[in-house]
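New to this. Explain the following:
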Amino acid sequence: MKIKVLKKILKGFGEYGFSRKYKLIEALNKGGNSHSYKAYSNSLKKNVFIKFFLLPRHDIELLKFRNEIAIHKLISRQGCAYDENAVIEFIESKIFDNELGGYLVLEWLDGKPLDKVIETYADKTIEEKVQLFHRVINALIPLSNWIVHRDLHPSNIMVLDEAFEYNKLSINPFKTGIKVVDFGESYSSYVTTVSDLEIEDLMKLQTSNTRRLTTSLYATPPEFLRNYGNKKNHIFDRSWNYDSWALGLIGFKIFFNENIFEFEDIKDYVGEVHRNHFQHDISHKISGKFYGLQHRQSKILEHIFHYLLRVDPTQRTGDGDVGLTLYLINFKKYELRQDLAASEYLSFIREGYFYLDRKGMTRLEDRLENDG
């Protein structure tokens, strides 16, 4: 939407004070009845990102936007717990009178989406690719204990235009130079602690059919299409590692500059998900690609992907486990033999220091450090 048209709409809503606070600079993109802009904050003296939501067609659309605002409030609070540089800064939000829409103001990010960065990594060394993957994982960790993103794909991950030294990640693990964006599809039961949303509101979002089924395999893990186990609300249960599927697909693209699988349309993907050997096909592709990989701990890297890309989400490992594993092999220089059983690599990935303790591998300085 052109800026001059938006200004007229805001005046029609009675939002005369908006132009005194912000100067709209550039229209960015449009999705449905949401419109995003680069703007300048007169009070903060810096550029900001503003997302407008206008004229909801029904109550669920407005509820979804209120949920997105609450998610960002929650994210901002979690940034204080991890690192103020780890997450997007929430500035302010407003719902217009008569619930005709509203806006959300966030920090402005100068950077490139991860899909553009991945294109430049085709000829990078495996070590450089591992480092990028580690940064992406650590950027997700401050969010994943509280929020399910549910639309995690490379264009929703921003690599900031700033100098970055990988070795500093060992000291500041969440200062990654990468931030996850676009939480329009996200879910968290914790939003009730930072907003006036109730559990009943979240149930309305859960049971609505407003979320489109897309051809994005990042945003559509197998459990979105096929119920595993007896958990009625499995898609909204963060313990199911919903975003770990997307993380596996993203990591595979970083490592090998290709998608782990391609489908002509969503119908073919649905058909594969319901085939009994879909998992076998995924595992076979992973093993084949890692077979000739030259890395001192290629087996651990291989099994990270085996346990991120599990069709059954109850078998999937989480980003926190993977982040610690990469910390242990890259910064602490722990090594496992390359001829161990798959269960040994999985134990190491999921247990970290506990595995090293059981095997008598933990160094004295690390035991003292972990004991406080």
Q: What stands out?
A: The two ends are 55 Å apart (CA to CA). The first strand starts at residue 22 and ends at 31. Strands lie at 22-31, 34-41, 46-54, 90-95, 101-107, 111-113, 157-160, 178-180.
